[in-house]
């Protein structure tokens, strides 16, 4: 539960607190990071359409508890990290009595009923153009999130890196020899690669071919492992088609023990 809350808070840029009738209300200001993932034309269209602020979903019983307890905890421990705050309050939440939790649930249900009325009214007042623009923005955000998740998974699963081409191998060698950054070297060696004799170029081309062969072997092994682990979305369509014809290697990867790999 603590991890789930941290994920929620990662999309917040502040907590605005107000005290009214001994109740502490929390208004969460969402950061603009998700909006920056939208295409420029989509952002401009949303701005031009002047779409009103959408009603916020009510806080769950757990988040209500965090809202109430967090200010006092930070007042006594101003240097406490957010992760420590969440961990401490998450533990404290587990010891809250069922009776008190029920009160949070009742409040949540009431707030949810109000939210349903507000969101229905909000949607009814939107023009068709505004609805289409919001739908397009939601689709873009979802695709961007999927892309970022795939990138993260590729990194976590240590996908083999494609080797650099002959030209970059040449630049790398020259940068080491001349103690220059590749950026500065590219400016100073502009045109030299094109003028290099074919016999000289062949050395780098052969090295690339050798490294690329190693890469293809490692990549195929990695893809087979990804398929066995259920990550087909990380695998090339070509590999998937070949596996459908010859699935035996994948089955062996899936059945093998960690010590056998």
From TrEMBL:
Annotated region of DNA binding: 55-123, 160-223
GO terms, molecular function: DNA binding
Cross-referenced SMART domains: HMG
Domain of life according to the entry: Eukaryota
Segments forming a coiled coil: 105-156
Keyword Nucleus: yes
Residues annotated as domain HMG box: 55-123, 160-223
Pfam families: HMG_box
GO annotations of cellular component type: nucleus
Transmembrane in keyword set: no
Keywords: Coiled coil, DNA-binding, Nucleus
Protein name: HMG box domain-containing protein
Source organism of this protein record: Psylliodes chrysocephalus
């Amino acid at each position: 539960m603590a991890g789930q809350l941290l994920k929620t808070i990662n999309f917040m840029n502040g907590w605005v607190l107000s005290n009214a009738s001994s109740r502490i209300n929390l208004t969460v200001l969402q950061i603009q990071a998700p909006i920056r993932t939208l295409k420029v034309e989509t952002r401009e269209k949303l701005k031009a359409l002047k779409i009103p602020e959408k009603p916020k979903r009510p806080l769950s019983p757990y988040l209500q508890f965090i809202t109430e307890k967090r200010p006092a905890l930070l007042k006594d421990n101003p240097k406490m990290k957010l992760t420590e705050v969440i961990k401490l309050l998450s533990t404290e939440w587990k010891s809250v009595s069922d009776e008190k939790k029920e009160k949070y649930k009742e409040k949540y249900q009431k707030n949810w009923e109000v939210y349903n009325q507000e969101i229905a009214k909000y949607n009814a007042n939107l023009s068709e153009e505004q609805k289409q623009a919001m739908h397009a923005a939601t689709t873009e955000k979802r695709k961007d999130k999927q892309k970022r998740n795939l990138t993260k998974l590729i990194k976590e699963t240590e996908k083999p890196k494609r080797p650099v081409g002959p030209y970059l191998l040449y630049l790398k060698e020259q940068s080491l020899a001349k103690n220059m950054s590749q950026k500065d070297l590219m400016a100073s060696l502009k045109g030299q690669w094109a003028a290099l004799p074919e016999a000289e170029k062949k050395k780098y081309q052969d090295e690339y071919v050798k490294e690329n062969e190693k890469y293809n072997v490692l990549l195929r092994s990695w893809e087979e492992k990804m398929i066995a682990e259920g990550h087909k979305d990380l695998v090339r369509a070509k590999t998937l088609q070949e596996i459908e014809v010859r699935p035996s290697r994948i089955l062996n990867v899936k059945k093998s023990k960690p010590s056998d790999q």
